[in-house]
Write a structure and sequence with these properties.
Elements lengths: L1 H24 L24 H14 L4 H6 L9 E5 L8 H14 L4 H5 L4 E10 L4 E8 L4 H13 L14 E10 L4
Length: 189
């Protein structure tokens, strides 16, 4: 029985020391046992000005009396414009290498905004960046706010500053790729 205690005591002491070191170094954050739920809200924007919408509604009402025979004669026009949407962390083999290069460009310049750090502001920011086939950043949209103007604007500025991105690979056959990226700002103390 004494030899079991002699073996068990160092194991328990070692376990306690290791847990303490891991906690102190911040590798494991024991304060948050529940992960944050990220809810994305997407704002749908109108493509056409209001005057054009009114005209389109009137035109639709006029054309709503068409027969099924006329609809069968209509042919869809392919204008060649193709786009797709993917998350920055996607593991989709098709996009993996390209997303890795986008992430690398952003991470090089991404930092915690000093003003937000001084104010202990934390939060999650989700943006959608739209990259044209030639790598030009066509648009950035804030999808989900952190609640901090400093964090939100800093995130949008970083995405813009990292542009231009690499051209889209030809085999994508896309005119534009929309990338949804989430930025998590946490201050560890």
């Amino acid at each position: 029985m004494g030899s079991k205690k002699a073996i068990l005591l160092p194991v328990v002491v070692s376990f306690v020391i290791h847990i303490s070191l891991i906690t102190v170094t911040g590798v494991v954050d024991l304060r948050q046992s529940v992960r944050d739920v990220e809810i994305l809200s997407v704002s749908i924007e109108e493509i056409y000005p209001e005057a054009t919408l009114d005209e389109a509604e009137e035109e639709f009402e006029e054309k709503s009396s068409y027969s099924d025979e006329e609809d069968k004669e209509k042919v869809a026009i392919d204008d060649g414009w193709r786009e797709d949407t993917v998350e920055l962390g996607s593991l989709d083999v098709k996009y993996a290498e390209y997303l890795k290069s986008v992430k690398r460009k952003i991470l090089i310049i991404w930092q915690y905004p000093p003003k937000a750090y001084e104010r202990n502001e934390e939060g999650n920011v989700t943006v959608r960046l739209s990259v044209d086939a030639d790598g030009t950043l066509a648009r950035t949209i804030l999808l989900s706010s952190s609640g901090s103007l400093v964090l939100d604007s800093s995130t949008l500025n970083v995405v813009k500053a990292a542009a231009p991105y690499d051209p889209l690979p030809g085999y994508y056959n896309l005119s534009r790729l929309h990338i949804i990226a989430s930025f998590r700002y946490r201050i560890r103390s």
